[in-house]
Amino acid sequence: MQNAGIAALKLKWRYLAFDVHPQHLSQAIAGAKAMNFIGLNLTVPHKLLAMNMVDALDESARAWGAVNTIRFEAKDDDGAWRPPGEFEGQSSQVRAYGFNTDADAIVRALRDDLGVEPAGAKVLLLGAGGAGRTAALKLASERVAKLFLVNRTRSKAEEVAVEIRKNWPAVALSLDYPDQPVDLMINATSVGLKEGDALPFDPSVFSIDRASAVFDMIYRPAETVLLRCARTAGARVANGLSMLLYQGAKALEIWTGRQPPIEIMRKALERNVYGS
Ligand code: NAP
């Protein structure tokens, strides 16, 4: 996806993947900085750790308490911080600037794929891990009417609830299954990733036909058991591929300052993930 976008923008860059042990994250960021990398993406479990390892935080990272994108910036002769891509020559002063592109990507995918507008919606969100927490905070900030946040380990949902009540006290919040129809159900658990996985919710407590739209963050398999049930029940459905695409496209925009070629990136992603 990123290399297809980079090629379409005619940049002589390469996007590479590295496995980094969490204990070495700080050295990895420092090494990339020293070698004049343009930037980095970070995934689990690095997103929270990186908050304390960058030199400056964009509002997006501060708001969600996680960094998934870093842009390296060099100080020019006038003292302004500029991305290395724009910077000719060497600067001894380089900083790592942390962003988060995950939260906006979730809402963009909900709007584009399902036509769901979070403001005023009733939402059942399954999962309070990294992705579930970000989704919950973002949905609260978008002023959902009611959020049902259900997690296997209730204490983790309670921790997220504390953050929501502090920052968005107007959002009606429950940690139990809804006793009413919802506009949207989101699966932010890892249940559904593996062949033979059960549904990520308890069907004896909540019936799938009470959700008008269902979004599964999982994108492989393309249709999870949850999405198949929801589709059969007549709900609008979408998997997490657009979410993955949009967080990556926004990162490319942050590094380049240019509009990312979304459709080219989508095709490359689909080819890579589904082989088609
Ligand atoms: P995570 O931090 O490890 O959280 C995992 C979540 O799944 C937790 O809420 C966990 O509940 C729950 N869970 C795991 N096994 C379960 C089970 N057997 N029964 C019930 N709940 C279970 O992972 P994450 O990063 O948030 O990722 C969550 C999902 O989102 C994954 O499927 C991942 O692939 C997907 N994702 C997609 C994108 C995208 O771009 N489309 C991006 C990020 C993540 P407990 O708290 O009780 O353990």
Give a quick set of tags describing it.
single chain; 276 residues; alpha/beta; Rossmann fold; 2 domains; 6-stranded parallel β-sheet; 5-stranded mixed β-sheet; 10 helices; binds NADP nicotinamide-adenine-dinucleotide phosphate
In a nutshell, what does this entry contain?
By secondary structure, this protein is α/β, with parallel strands linked by helices. Helices cover 37% and strands 17% of the residues. α1 runs antiparallel to α10, α5 (102-114) packs across α9 and α6 (130-141) runs parallel beside α7.
What would you note in describing this structure?
This protein has 2 domains: about 1-100 and about 240-275, Rossmann fold (3-Layer(aba) Sandwich); about 105-240, Rossmann fold (3-Layer(aba) Sandwich), CATH 3.40.50.720. The chain is about 35% helix and about 15% strand. The chain contains 10 helices and 11 strands. It has helices at about 1-10, 25-35, 45-50, 60-65, 100-115, 130-140, 155-165, 225-230, 240-255, 260-275; strands at about 40, 55, 70-75, 80, 95-100, 120-125, 145-150, 170-175, 180-185, 210-215, 235-240. α9 (about 240-255) crosses α10. It is globular, with a radius of gyration of 20 Å. The site of NADP nicotinamide-adenine-dinucleotide phosphate (NAP) has 22 residues, from α6 and α9.
